Amino acid sequence: VSAEWNREAEIKFNTAIVHSLSIPTQWDESNGVYLGFDGQVHTKPDYMEHIYTDLSIWDIFRTQIPFIIFHDSQRANDIIHSIMLNVEQGGDLPKWPFANIYTNCMIGSHADIM
């Protein structure tokens, strides 16, 4: 294992971090309102910084979510609370929420693990 500083590797690493944090999508407006899974306009709860959607849960629950938990715990909490708001407003645990709809394009319920 090399302990030498490598500028090229650092750039690649930091670029990968930025790419990994570009999804899920921040769904709320600057004033905290968002369109919920029930088609109604809601205001995000005060304990959340943002509402998130576009969660490819099958693809992220084993890798990206643990990384986000360690890298940005507030974002991780907001993602989990966003999923719970999907349940409250839409009635089901999402498999792959996209914007404010259920795509139902995944088998299983991978959000259970999150």
From TrEMBL:
It holds the Pfam family Glyco_hydro_92. Gene3D superfamilies: 2.70.98.10, alpha-1,2-mannosidase (1.20.1050.60), GH92 mannosidase domain (3.30.2080.10). InterPro entries: GH-type_carb-bd, Glyco_hydro_92, PNGase. It comes from the Eukaryota. GO terms for cellular component: cytosol. One of its GO terms (biological process) is glycoprotein catabolic process. One of its GO terms (molecular function) is carbohydrate binding. This is Glycosyl hydrolase family 92 domain-containing protein. It comes from Rotaria magnacalcarata. The lineage of its organism: Eukaryota, Metazoa, Spiralia, Gnathifera, Rotifera.
